[in-house]
Structure formats: structure tokens, C-alpha cells
């Protein structure tokens, strides 16, 4: 069944109005007619099973027949703090992280970050592009929310944000043995909010790891192999999914 997302403001009682690019997609690409059923997600974890009432040039009107909780969302909210990588790697990272269940993604400027977003307009365009990728990935993976891509943060500000969470981890090649990491992963279910820090190409400076420790962020190991920045996040998130799925 075809799936679409709306904002809470588009839901009026038992009626939902779909506007924007989805209208053309429904009308001219999918050729969905009045009387057919679609799923409309409110972006807050609820799926509305609807019947199309009316199709016009500017909007689609649908009537809600039933509402269910989206079954794909984790009870634990995971925030990915991603050190900005070079070129278009961030787009792949966002896409796959959303598929793996993150709640939000924070691009982070670290000491070894090569890319510089000093132009405000260019940064805004990047964020718009990244948010669009997150939305497409959410649709593909049947998410109940569209994860937010937050504005770029300094490493210091990211640490402050993570300090408000129940648990935060940072993969580091000199972290304690694998057993320590396994114990952390097995205890994830007891936390409602988790932060994951991933460095850019070249990883974190030793001083950054020490600063993370001062903020009670726990270093973990991903094994003996050195992973690329776009691989490290997927590895951590995959381990977390395995321990958090119910």
C-alpha cells in the first residue's frame, strides 16, 4: 500500500489534505483514484489508513478509516553526531542511518573536519538537501517519523547536547576490550535516549576523546579493523538495532 507523510496541521478531524509534490505523484504517476486506500503517516509515529475522497489539481482529500501505531519505531531515541566527511559521503550516511532507525542526525565540526561550511546560504541548501534525503529514506523504510537533520554544530556544543542524554558512546581505536562494548550494548534497552559520536576522515584527536570522557561519553571498540567514517556509524547503529528491537 502506498505511503505518504503529512504534518499534524493537515489532519482535520477525520479528513486529511495532501498538498505539495505528493499531489502530482498520486494523481499522475501512481494514478490513484477516489475510493482507493492509502496510508498517511502523521510524522509522529501514527499511521492513518485512509480512503481517497477527492483528487484535484492542488490537493488530495482522504478520509481516515483507522489509525494504528507505526510498528517500525524504536522506543529508544538515537541521535547520530556525525563528524562532517568530505564530498557527498554525508548523503549516504544520512540515508542509511535513517534506514537503521536514528531519531535525529547532528552534523559536527571536529578538529580533523576538512569540509568548511562558512557560507550560510550554502549551509542552508545543504541542510535542505540532507532533510530531503532523510524524508525519502524514511518513506522507503516505512518509518513512523521523518528524522530531523539539525544545523551543523561545533564539537563542544555537540558534547553539551549529548550530556543531556541517558547514554552516549564514541568509537575509538584505543578503547577498552570488546567485552566492555558488549556489556554497554546489552544494556541499551534501559536507556530512552542515546547519542553516538562518529569522527570524520582521520578520526578524533586524542584531546577530543579526553574531552568526551569529561562529559561522561563512553569510548567503545568496533573491533581490530579500522573503519571508514561512513562505515563506522552503520556498524554501531546495526549493533544497537539488534539489542533494541523488540
Question: Keyphrases for this structure?
Answer:
26% strand, single chain, alpha/beta, 246 residues, 6-stranded mixed sheet, 2 domains, 13 strands, 7-stranded parallel sheet, Alpha/beta knot, S-adenosyl-L-methionine, cytoplasm, Alpha/beta_knot_MTases, Ribosomal Protein L25, Chain P, RsmE
Could you explain how this protein is built, in words?
- With 246 residues, this protein is an alpha/beta fold.
- It has two domains: 3-69, Ribosomal Protein L25, Chain P (Beta Barrel), CATH 2.40.240.20; 77-244, 3-Layer(aba) Sandwich (Alpha/beta knot).
- 34% of the residues lie in helices and 26% in strands.
- It is built from seven helices and 13 strands.
- It has helices spanning 21-29, 89-99, 120-140, 155-162, 178-186, 206-214, 229-244, and strands spanning 3-5, 11-12, 15-18, 37-41, 46-55, 60-69, 77-83, 104-109, 148-149, 153-154, 167-171, 193-198, 218-220.
- Strand 4 (37-41) and strand 5 (46-55) form a beta hairpin.
- It is an enzyme of class 2 (transferase).
Amino acid at each position: 500500500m502506498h505511503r505518504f507523510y503529512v504534518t499534524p496541521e493537515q489532519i482535520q478531524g477525520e479528513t486529511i489534505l495532501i498538498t505539495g509534490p505528493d499531489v502530482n505523484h498520486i494523481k499522475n504517476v501512481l494514478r490513484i483514484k477516489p475510493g482507493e486506500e492509502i496510508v498517511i503517516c502523521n510524522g509522529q509515529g501514527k499511521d492513518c489508513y485512509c480512503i481517497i475522497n477527492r483528487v484535484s489539481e492542488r490537493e488530495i482529500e482522504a478520509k481516515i478509516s483507522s489509525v494504528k501505531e507505526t510498528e517500525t519505531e524504536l522506543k529508544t531515541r538515537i541521535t547520530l553526531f556525525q563528524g562532517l566527511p568530505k564530498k557527498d559521503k554525508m548523503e549516504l550516511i544520512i540515508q542509511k542511518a535513517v534506514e537503521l532507525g536514528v531519531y535525529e542526525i547532528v552534523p559536527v565540526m571536529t578538529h580533523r573536519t576538512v569540509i568548511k561550511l562558512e557560507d550560510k546560504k550554502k549551509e542552508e541548501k545543504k541542510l535542505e538537501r540532507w532533510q530531503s534525503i532523510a524524508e525519502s529514506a524514511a518513506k522507503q523504510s516505512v518509518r513512523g517519523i521523518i528524522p530531523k537533520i539539525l544545523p551543523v554544530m561545533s564539537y563542544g556544543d555537540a558534547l553539551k547536547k549529548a550530556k543531556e542524554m541517558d547514554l552516549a558512546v564514541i568509537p575509538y581505536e584505543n578503547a577498552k576490550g570488546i567485552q566492555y562494548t558488549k556489556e554497554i550494548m546489552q544494556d541499551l534497552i534501559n536507556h530512552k535516549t542515546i547519542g553516538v559520536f562518529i569522527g570524520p576522515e582521520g578520526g578524533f584527536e586524542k584531546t577530543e576523546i579526553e574531552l568526551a570522557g569529561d562529559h561522561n561519553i563512553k569510548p567503545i571498540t568496533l573491533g581490530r579493523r579500522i573503519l571508514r567514517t561512513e562505515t563506522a556509524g552503520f556498524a554501531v547503529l546495526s549493533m544497537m538495532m539488534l539489542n533494541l528491537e523488540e
